[in-house]
Recover the amino acids of this structure.
């Protein structure tokens, strides 16, 4: 799982060191759209034994603009502020997903190549190249290549 480092709103943007993705026990979790996702990561960091569903429950009310992505038990799960958990379908034995402003560009790159860390980094670069709200440096966590 990977993320960019840009924080932005309607009038300004800045590159930040605060990670938008993390590895917590057997789960990878990332967020986009709202810094409220940091609260979800903090709950996961304090309680890595919890399931993703339990982490969402403990997180309380989430900001309306948040998008979350989790890899748990070999499944990719996306969620919004309503905490509905949508499991990404496998096609030909593979599944991938993306959230945030650069998601359309990242998904296109992942469709073309989804074989490992190189594909993930290429998808992040494609998103940054074609979207003004995505910027390096990128943070990559987890994966079979680690």
């Amino acid at each position: 799982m990977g993320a960019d480092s840009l924080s932005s709103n309607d009038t300004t943007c800045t590159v930040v060191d605060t990670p938008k993705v993390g590895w917590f026990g057997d789960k990878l979790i990332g967020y986009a759209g709202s810094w409220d996702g940091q609260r979800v990561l903090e709950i996961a960091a304090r309680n890595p034994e919890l399931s993703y569903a339990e982490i969402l429950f403990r997180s309380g009310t989430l900001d309306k603009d948040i998008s979350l992505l989790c890899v748990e038990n070999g499944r990719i799960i996306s969620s919004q502020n309503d905490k509905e958990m949508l499991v990404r379908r496998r096609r030909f034995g593979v599944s991938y997903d993306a959230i945030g402003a650069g998601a359309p560009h990242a998904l296109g790159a992942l469709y073309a190549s989804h074989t490992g860390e190189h594909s993930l980094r290429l998808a992040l670069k494609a998103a940054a190249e074609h979207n003004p709200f995505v910027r390096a440096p990128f943070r990559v966590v987890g994966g079979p290549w680690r």
Summary: The radius of gyration is 14 Å. The chain has one domain: 2-137.
